[in-house]
Amino acid sequence: MIQEIVIRAAGTDLYARQRGSNPRAVFLHGFGDDLHTWDSVWEVLGDGVPALRYDLRGFGRSACRENMPYNHADDLSVVLDATSMGRCDLIGVSMGGSIALNFTLDHPERVRSLTLISPGLIGWEWSDAWLERWGHIVDAARSGVMDEAKRLWWEHPLFGPTRASAAGPALFESIMRYSGAQWISDCHVHMLPDVERLHLLGTRTLLLTGGRDLDDFRLIADLIEVNASELERTADPARGHLIHLEDPVGCASKIKSFLSSERRPS
Questions:
Q1: Residue 81 in 3-state DSSP?
Q2: Which of 100, 110, 166, 203 is most buried by its number of CB atoms within 10 A?
Q3: Cβ atoms of residues 241 and 171 within 8 Å
């Protein structure tokens, strides 16, 4: 049974969907996306994984009520408190992965396990190639040509493998739904780089990466792998950045197997 809930946080109402009366896992989507990015994965996981997914602040139906400084990790704390989750299995993709990792480093006692899919990293120094393409997108959005910004985002090399897969239409629809607000103005607080404290990651972690992802994300994954103390990595040479869209069955199976094989007491 799927339940729609709204969780009130400072400056926003976070829209969420919950499966099961006592959710154990929380799913975090990537930049420009919303909770629907997990539709196919959730279908494969089924009722065996009680879980919650929500639109991050400023995305999907979690509109900002006011322009005020915020932190996605603080919003996640609000979600866990509102749903009475003492500890959770945290799953994040891309930007959602950077939030999940940041939250785990800040609050290891609240995370039972961590699954990172092509994660970003808070405070990452992006390559010149990434910054140049990002700059063109932001310039278009701030010039009032949002359709052009979305076109550039859709055509970004980051999504090449996904565009060529059966998930291409779903990705396109997701990009078209995105408001583009964060390209124009984003009140997220600036934070210190998490790369400097990756060695503190002791939470049991599953890292899923694609061999066709961009260099920035492959390097981030390598750094996480060499620093984390309890990490299992699966690299698929045929996949790109959005593994959960390109191969939802395989992705869901890996997540389910990882969660079911958990060795630590709950």
A1: helix
A2: 100
A3: no
> What does the DSSP 8-state code read for residue 128?
H
Structure tokens at 225: 């792998």
| 108, 204 contact by CB (below 8 A) | no
In 3D space, the residue among 198, 203, 214, 209 whose CA is nearest the CA of residue 233 turns out to be: 209
Architecture in CATH for domain 2-124+188-260: 3-Layer(aba) Sandwich (3.40)
Q: What are phi and psi of 30, to 5 degrees?
A: -95, -175
The pTM assigned to this predicted structure is 0.96
Q: How far apart are CA 12 and CA 187, in angstroms?
A: 12
pLDDT in tens, 54-111: 999 999 999 888 889 999 999 999 999 999 998 999 999 999 999 999 999 999 999 9
d(CA 32, CA 245): 15
